[in-house]
Amino acid sequence: MGLFDFFKTKSLKGNHSIIALSSFRAYYLYGFTQQPNQVAPDKQLFGELYRLVIGDSGGIAISNSFHPYFIVNPKGTTVWNAAYVMVYTNDNKAEVFDSIRTQKAICTLDLSPLFKEVNVWPDTRLTYEENPLFETYSPFVIPFLVDSQDRVPRWDTEIAQRVGQQGHATDYVEQVTNSIQFFMAEPSFVIGFDEFDEQNPSGLITNFINCKPMFTGL
């Protein structure tokens, strides 16, 4: 999978602006599976997943699922920051950023070669020693780096609308779960969606800890 295959078929002309990292939002889906570290083989299907979850905002689709202890390397670089750097250091960065901003394009990147080693955070609550549950039900995240321009992600809109109309959003969450199964085998399932906060990375861990009551009695 080429990093910038999306842009090989067209050439953009004119002045292009570089989008600052601070203009992007680091979102992620999270859930449980048996094999958390996977690579999506089909960019078109992953783009459909991106639109289903994010909506019409442009951005960088990181076409991987990761165990949370794989998304930050020993130097402290996150998958979201690494995705930005890969675009920024590319010779066609101006065209890529321009397409993301003006055409709401999706640039798809596979970061598995860069994040292939486990790196347990200071927050060790997802280790088997602290929570044996996670040996059977392994946490995963699917990251998205989005040029949000203050747009609300489609996930938030769909959840609010469906809860307001029918009291739950189970059908939408199941739709998202079904959309990941082309690269994540059953029994993988999505639980939620959130924004990664570098000032409070443990918030991501807490999302999984809060799911523990779901497995009571299993």
Quick structural overview:
Strands 5-3-6-1-7 form a five-stranded mixed beta sheet, with helices on both faces. The protein has a two-stranded antiparallel sheet with strand order 2-4. It has helices spanning 43-54, 79-88, 93-102, 133-136, 154-166, 170-179, 202-209, and strands at residues 24-33, 38-39, 59-62, 64-65, 106-109, 138-147, 189-195.
How would you describe this protein?
The longest helix is centred in the C-terminal third of the chain and has 13 residues, at 154-166. The chain has helices at residues 43-54, 79-88, 93-102, 133-136, 154-166, 170-179, 202-209; strands at 24-33, 38-39, 59-62, 64-65, 106-109, 138-147, 189-195. The protein is of the alpha+beta class and 218 residues long. Helices cover 31% and strands 18% of the residues. It has one domain (5-213). The strands form two sheets. The chain has a five-stranded mixed β-sheet with strand order 5-3-6-1-7, sandwiched between helices. The protein has seven helices and seven strands, in the order ββαββααβαβααβα. The model is unreliable at 1-15 (pLDDT under 50).
